[in-house]
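Data availability (excerpt). The following record was deposited with the supplementary files.
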Amino acid sequence: MARQKKPKKIQMPRALEGAREYLAKRMAVIVVSIVFIGLAWVLVTAFFERSDYFRLKAVDATSTSEASLIGMRNDILRQYKDKNIFKISLTAIASSIEPKYPDAKEIIVKRMLPDKLFVDLKFRKPVALLSNGQLYPIDREGVILVNINSMKLKDFPVIKGVDQKIAGKPHKKNESRNLIVALDLLDELKKAKFLEKYNARLVDASDIKSLSFSLTDNGPVVIIGYEDFKERLKSLRDVLRDPRIVLDKINYIDVRFKDVAISPK
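Predicted structure:
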């Protein structure tokens, strides 16, 4: 009988053998690294969560108004003192502060390591008074400011002819087109340098097509409408430069059209 030949043993190339050993070592290093990082993460997390070093000890606050923040700081500290600073909900704190400071436009609460919270309140600034039976301070967005005394703003511009219900409730932006246009007009009146010597601060927004403002306390009314404020104010400037114009004898000046209309008293 013929002898069967033994199968030859296949040997892998040395390059492949080296690559396999290299990959095995790399995988071992990766596994060890993952285990080390995971263990380190657990230890660091435990340190941050359990260490007395990160327990709340103080609350600092600042604001853009003169509102007292002492009570607010004490309330937060009373509720969260000695609690882990990383487990305190910053959103919850901001939400709890909002009802107490309704005129705040933005409330930012931050952690200051290791054991402090910082609260920054940015308050809305009044730009005008909304006249509706009484005077309501409003900001540039038409939000009624409830914690500002209107008596302290006696020199501020006054907007009349806007229903308070339409203008919006306290703390909420207005939905009145008339009020928005009136505020836009006030912006342009501030920019018009030729009006600095007048006291143009009373705006009547009851009808935006005939939107008007009083040039002085007792002077004529300027009917300007709701568009092209810059161009129409230029027309008003040209009229006021005319030496023949006597304001005390004028009822109104209508600058809505190319030919300015002047009505005498």
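Summary of structural features: The domain at 128-264 is CATH 3.40.50.11690 (Rossmann fold).
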